[in-house]
Design brief:
With 172 residues, the chain is α+β, with helices and mostly antiparallel strands. It is built from 3 helices and 9 strands; from the N terminus they run ββββββαββαβα.
Length: 172
């Protein structure tokens, strides 16, 4: 792991060395990033709980990379990412609580961490490329939802058939 000091209470760990896929040019201002993002909270018992993860939700996020879209303390690190690289950002909950004047969900515990993991899947140089990738992802999601719906309908029909068969057996 290569560690980059940021601001007090913030620790960032870039993992490009561990990922053999990380290749190609680094991000440039104005590029579009296609990435998987997960947000994880460390609980009182020391276990992690996933708050959100694009792998199980609406698919990868696609965002423009520029200095207004990325917090300044992360910009220098994120612009070093290459396709396939991963980045983990750990922020001490105390820092978040101080920033938000203590207005935090009850499961945020002092001394524990809020983690964000980012995996850079692709870099696009134009909005057209990013829109095309976004449309492909949405089509994949609709296809998966359709398959799940068909599976659910098939499962319900099987249960109805079984219930009817049991009803008929009981009636005889």
């Amino acid at each position: 792991h290569t560690r980059y000091p940021l601001v007090t209470g913030v620790q960032t760990c870039a993992l490009p060395i561990l990922n053999a896929e990380g290749s190609g040019p680094a991000l440039k201002n104005g590029n579009f990033m296609q990435m998987h993002i997960a947000q994880i909270i460390e609980l009182k018992n020391g276990k992690d709980s996933v708050l959100s993860d694009t792998r199980t939700g609406l698919g990868p996020a696609i965002e423009i990379f520029d200095s207004t879209n990325v917090p300044p303390e992360y910009y220098k690190i994120v612009k070093q990412l290459r396709k396939g690289d991963s980045l983990t950002i750990r922020i001490l909950n105390d820092t978040l609580m101080n920033r938000n004047k203590g207005n935090m969900p009850p499961f945020f515990t002092r001394g524990k961490y809020f983690k964000t993991t980012v995996r850079l899947l692709n870099i696009f140089s134009t909005m057209g490329q990013a829109d095309s990738a976004r449309n492909n992802e949405m089509a994949n999601i609709r296809r998966k939802d359709s398959i799940r719906s068909e599976e659910h309908t098939s499962e319900l029909q099987s249960r109805v058939d079984i219930s009817y068969a049991v009803f008929c057996l009981k009636k005889k």
